[in-house]
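re: ur msg from earlier - yeah i can do the uridine-5'-diphosphate-xylopyranose complex, just paste it... oh wait u already did. ok heres what im feeding in:
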Amino acid sequence: MNILVIGTGYVGTTTALVFAEMGWNVTGLDTDSLKINQLKQGNLHFYEPGLEELLRKHMQSGHLQFTTDKDQAINNNDIIFICVGTPSGPDGNADLSYVQQVAEDIGHASNRYKLIINKSTVPVGTQERVTSWIKSAQIESHPFDVASNPEFLREGKALIDALNPDRIIIGSNHERATHLILTLYQSVNCPVVVTTPRTAELIKYASNAFLATKISYINEMARLCDKLGVHVKDVAEGIGLDPRIGQSFLQAGIGYGGSCFPKDVSALLLTAKANDTELSLLEKVVSVNQTQHLYLLDKVRERLETLAHKKIAVLGLAFKPETDDIREAPASRVIQSLLSEQAYVSVFDPVAPLEPYLLQQPITWSATPEDALQHADAVILCTEWAIYQQIDWVQMKNIMNQPNMFDGRNMLEATLMKSIGFYYQGIGC
Ligand code: UDX
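and the outut:
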């Protein structure tokens, strides 16, 4: 089968590559010619382990091509995935303008039956809106179906997640659409849920909101652990062994970030509000997350007495390891707070850049962790990059002004750090 993937961002590129790997002929379409040219040359425009190798493999295998010619691409392909961005609009609702543009392009260029499958995270009811946008843009009437097939991949693990999904959700009102989507995924071995488009759309939001809830739950529990002298890691392990709870997403830290959790939780809260329903638990999830970095900064301030004119090294800018994505990264919130209290800030991340709004600020960019830590009064670990475990912390202790370690991801061994001579504080230990 021939598949068109519209949008070559994170989800779109991964989707295109994975379908090519499954043996389908895939075309990736984007209006951004820079991105398309880069992809054509076998280069990814974002950092994600394993994807570039697959890109090069399928540029050669002939299963994958990229284009900016939307009319031709829509004409030539009957199965079309929508993978464009749905960023938060000014009111916090998902901005559907890119989805609408794509739907109208499809309607305008359609020449025969098309199956349009939405992978972008979109509010409940979007399948119906896409249907009407396509219909109103059609010059001649051609049959089409619109289905929902949300994506659950994690950044940094996109390839593993997309090749071995834990479930496939198909939101479809039509037998022929369901059958085609099942055929597309025939080589994947995992549970499949076939449901209505509205249910599929809500599953995606409810899923991310539940994971965010687990994180805020353990983060709030970590604050109590600090008061009680209990290790939150042990609590997480103990409760997580109950299969009804599970071990994952119980890692306490300075809070969740990224392009999904903050945006999706806020969009779900607005959907609830628009439908006269209170999701009070989720509101609390957001407020715990928004204050979690301040909780760690209180510890730093308490130790140093003041942050003013103290040199603080921030290790990690990305919202999590194995990605260069800095969207809603807790590290940026930490840096902003430090600057507002007149601290001198040095930063290091193996791949992620600084947020553009921080570029004009007096921040020292360091090429190595050692550079960042030179003469520092404290180090705040914001992203758990594996390389931080390999650092020679004995040597680091000697180059710092004061060996204070605030581990915002509970990554390092507290006993080891203390035995080296560090004052070590994590979150909930
Ligand atoms: C998430 C979902 O996991 C994925 O299914 C969905 O498709 C997109 O959103 P992603 O944003 O890539 O994926 O990252 P994820 O691994 O879920 O982590 C999100 C944030 O939560 C990160 O900032 C991470 O550091 C934080 N986190 C995660 C914790 O603080 N504790 C945990 O136990 C797990």
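cool cool. The longest strand covers residues 2-6. ping me if u need the other ligands too
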